[in-house]
Amino acid sequence: MELPELIIGGIHKDNRGQIQFNNDFNAEQVKRIYVIENIDYLFKRAWQGHRIERRWFAVIAGSFEIKLVKIDNWDHPSKTLDQSMYRLNSDSLDVLCIPGGYVSSIQALEDDSKLLVMADYSFGEIADEYRYSNDYFDS
Question: Which of 23, 27, 51, 103 is 20 to 30 A from 132, comparing alpha carbons?
Answer without folding.
Answer: 27
